[in-house]
Amino acid sequence: MDWIDLEISLCYVVLGAVILIVAKLCNDILTPYNLDEELTTRNNQAVGLSLTGYYAGVMIIFLGAALGTDYDELALDKLLNEMLLDTAYALGGILLLNLGRKILDRMILRQFSIYKELVEDKNVGTGAVLCGGYIATALILAGGIYGDIPPEAAFAGPWTGAVTALCYFIVGQVTLVFFSLFYQLITKYDIHSEIEKDNVAAGVAFAGNIVALGILLLKATAHHFESFQASLIEYVSLATIGFVALFLMRQLVDHGLLPQTSIAHAIGVDRNLGAAWIEGVVAIGMASIIYFML
């Protein structure tokens, strides 16, 4: 056992726990309802599911920052500086995750208030979409932070990861908004209407597709950075592949995996949560195959 690696790992475990606590405090401040009351007194599963995605997103961003360094080659003072830098990335990611929630509220689930659905109606479908949105946003950010920027680049420096991550966050949010429109286009039921009517299956299926797209966009952001033009071309190419692949996946589920019914009927009419899980898992699985095989 390499004791130095173990000690570094334990330091990051402690740091990760501290960042989660900070993330909770930040969410308490920026959320217009009492999280502790919703989770305990009211046993609000919708808020719990949303918060699960938020915490998962925070850890994904933290890992994106932490995994990009060879710690064996760092002296103690440089290791401490690297940990401070990773912490700063994680804190910035927390703020962007909360901003992403606002964008999801205004641009993706724009036909109703997520606050009302989460708190007043305890709408688990809305919580699922928020969970998926947090994870997809975090994957995009983690890739932007982790992506390798060559030292000879004119803008190379300790904060170039922050610049690229911010750029990818903006482009990623635009992509998620366009994907929500595309997903509605290929779906035979009204997503907003079904989610607002407490159709958990509709929310879970949509969330699974959002996470799948996030995996593909992680592939686009976590790469060796050459130039903004080259990165944008690669990003658009993988996003396009993602849209097409997720459309084909729905056809596979519809005609191959659920031949006795249509996925639109199973989710939109029967509110079949099992069908929604199948759609979501197949989407995530197909995105993972593309991620590792491209």
Sheet-strand content, in percent, reads: under 5%
Provide the helix percentage.
over 70%
Please state the overall shape, judged from the principal axes of the Cα atoms: globular
Overall average residue pLDDT: 87
Descriptive account of the structure:
It contains twelve helices and no strands. With 294 residues, the chain is mainly alpha-helical. α7 crosses α9. The two termini are 34 Å apart. About 2% of the residues have low confidence.
In short:
This protein has 294 residues and is mainly alpha-helical. The protein has one domain (3-293).
Entry keywords:
globular, mainly alpha, 79% helix, 294 residues
What is the topological layout?
Layout: H1 3-30, H2 35-41, H3 45-66, H4 76-108, H5 114-120, H6 124-146, H7 160-185, H8 191-196, H9 200-221, H10 228-257, H11 263-268, H12 273-293
Helix pairs in contact: 1-3, 1-4, 3-4, 3-6, 4-6, 4-7, 6-7, 6-9, 7-9, 9-10, 9-12, 10-12
